[in-house]
Amino acid sequence: MLTRIQAALRDVIRADAERVGPFLVRFDAHGDHLSMNYAVPDEGAAPTRGEVDALVAAFRSRSRTPRLEYLRPWPAVDAALEAAGFAVDRLLPVMAIDELVVPPRPAGLTVEAVTSDDDLHAVSVVQHTAFGVDGVVGAEDVARQRSLLRDDGVIVLARLDGEPVGAGAHTAPRHGLSQVAGIAVPVAFRGRGIASAVCADLTALVFGSGCTPFLETEPDGKVTRLYGPLGYRTIGHSTSVTLEQRLRAGPRQGKPLQ
Predict the structure, then answer these.
(1) Mind listing the pLDDT tens digit for each residue in 19-56?
(2) In which residue ranges of the chain is CATH 3.40.630.30 found?
(3) Cα–Cα distance between 8 and 16 in angstroms, integer?
(4) What is the pLDDT of residue 250?
(5) Partners of residue 233 on adjacent β-strands
(6) Which numeric CATH code is attached to 2-94+237-248?
(7) Which residues have C-beta within 8 Å of that of residue 78, sequence separation ≥ 6?
């Protein structure tokens, strides 16, 4: 399952990626934001020190911070990157599900797939509020939502008695899989079963398309409090590892890979 998920995540960047040894690398032409510039190892990769050094050089030549995203367990990649001075900056549980346990739906709650600009704007407002994103929601946020729709993803908006109170999405099917993501409920509406309803509806939509759902989540209690009761189980971890400039000259900082 992890191998299929990793293949699906690799395919997300394949069209725009560059190859550096046993890695596909996404370099963003417009900026150096960490989340937009990263490498993904090939299936079965066991990088040598020379291959990791070449990867670092490719990032440095573009004034980008060397960074990778991949799924664990992957001991060969972990060992090669740790030896080169990379440190973990994110480790998130990856969860899959075989059968959905449908939760009770709060009275007055609707969850609908949306496509209009007004609804996509409402989705962005809900997500910005829930995730603490600064700034006013604008046209660029709607455009970002619409790009997911163009890629055959699905976006849902939850309303409680007509008021937008929750949102989420699932990605386009790849390798028979689809990722459930972006589940958001503002603080004022939490604890009412809204997030469970949004996740359950998205999961049912993925199953209905003939695909298997998966998700990744923060290690903040949602594993057992939200996703576990729906039938999700942890199958591995999504890791992000980074080599900061300061690590080249001195002792490695941050959390080790092992």
Answers:
(1) 999 999 999 888 888 888 999 999 999 999 999 999 99
(2) 2-94+237-248, 109-230
(3) 15
(4) 38
(5) 96
(6) 3.40.630.30
(7) 72, 257, 258
Task: At 156, give phi and psi (nearest 5°).
Answer: -120, 150
Superfamily of domain 109-230 in CATH is Gcn5-related N-acetyltransferase (GNAT) (3.40.630.30)
- Cβ-based neighbour number of residue 122 at 10 Å: 19
| Assigned token pair, 257 | 């890979």
Q: Tokens 């990722």 belong to which residue? A: 179
Q: Kindly report the pTM of this predicted structure.
A: 0.82
Both tokens of 52, joined, read 């990791």
Name the β-bridge partners of 181.
Answer: 169
CA–CA gap between residue 115 and residue 247 (Å, rounded): 45
Q: Which amino acid is at 115?
A: T
Sole residue written with tokens 């299929």: 4
Per-residue pLDDT band for 244 (boundaries 50, 70, 90) equals confident
C-alpha neighbours within 13 Å on the C-beta side of residue 169: 23
* pLDDT value of position 245: 58
Label residue 167 exposed, middle or buried (CB < 10 Å: 0-12, 13-18, 19+): buried
Q: What is the pLDDT of residue 110?
A: 98
**Residues composing the chain:** 258
List, for residues 91-140, the tens digit of each pLDDT value.
Answer: 999 999 999 999 999 999 999 999 999 999 999 999 999 999 989 999 99
**196 CB neighbour count, 10 Å cutoff:** 23
In the chain, where does DSSP find H-type helix?
2-14, 49-61, 75-83, 117-131, 139-150, 194-208, 222
